[in-house]
């Protein structure tokens, strides 16, 4: 009797072939993952740079606007400071002129009215024959107008002499200025009556003395 083992044949048919491991495919997969990760990192880095650049541009624009606003305020402050300095110099000059008892009121009034715009006085000295005025001006035209105004009255003799004029360069807090010194001779007419009286007095005393000597 012939026996056939059918189970052994079926078992052999059930066996599946084993899959072989390919190192080349694994290496290719790893390289692809590295490339994807690198591309993602570069993309994120580029995006962050764009965001940072946009933020910096906005901050620069804001800073430029603030700088322009502060520059405008600085110019206004400088103008107010120049006006305040001008007014202060004029007040000090008025006080100085008021304290000078030997300066005639008409001369003070004439000098005060002769001051043009963009010019102010810092000091004034006067003796019996002349007056010397110091000040500052923003332009030489204002200085010329001041000298012309001084010579428009008979209180001062012509010509009005500009003793010194020097240009002071501009700085961060003040514009370019011209410092000057002006000297003028005061028109002080002689008093002939007083001189005649003095001479008469001396002659009277001499006549009296001669009479006394004659009487003796």
Please name the defining characteristics of this protein.
alpha+beta; 4-stranded antiparallel β-sheet; Gyrase A, domain 2; disordered C terminus; 216 residues; 61% helix; 5 helices; single chain
Structural domains: how many: 1
Structural class comes to alpha+beta
Strand order of the largest sheet: 1-2-4-3
Radius of gyration, rounded?
52 Å
CATH class (first level) name? Alpha Beta
Helix-strand pattern, N to C?
Answer: HHHEEHEEH
| CATH topology tier name | Gyrase A, domain 2
Shape: rod-shaped
Total of DSSP H or I helical runs spanning 4+ residues? 5
Low-confidence parts lasting 5 or more residues at pLDDT below 50?
A: 191-216
Helix coverage percent: 55-70%
Mean pLDDT across every amino acid position: 77
First-last Cα distance: 213 Å
Using the 3D structure, state the CATH architecture.
2-Layer Sandwich
Strand residue content: 15-25%
Beta strands, count: 4
Largest beta sheet, briefly?
A: 4 strands, antiparallel
Let me know the CATH homologous superfamily: General secretion pathway protein M, EpsM
Q: What would a concise description of this structure say?
A:
The protein is 61% helix and 18% strand.
What would your notes on this structure say?
The protein has one domain (27-189): Gyrase A, domain 2, CATH 3.30.1360. It is built from 5 helices and 4 strands. A hairpin with a 3-residue loop joins strand 1 (119-126) and strand 2 (130-137). It has a 4-stranded antiparallel β-sheet. The protein is α+β, with helices and mostly antiparallel strands. The chain has helices spanning 6-14, 23-99, 105-114, 140-150, 192-215; strands at residues 119-126, 130-137, 156-168, 177-186. The radius of gyration is 52 Å and the shape is rod-shaped. The model is unreliable at 191-216 (pLDDT under 50).
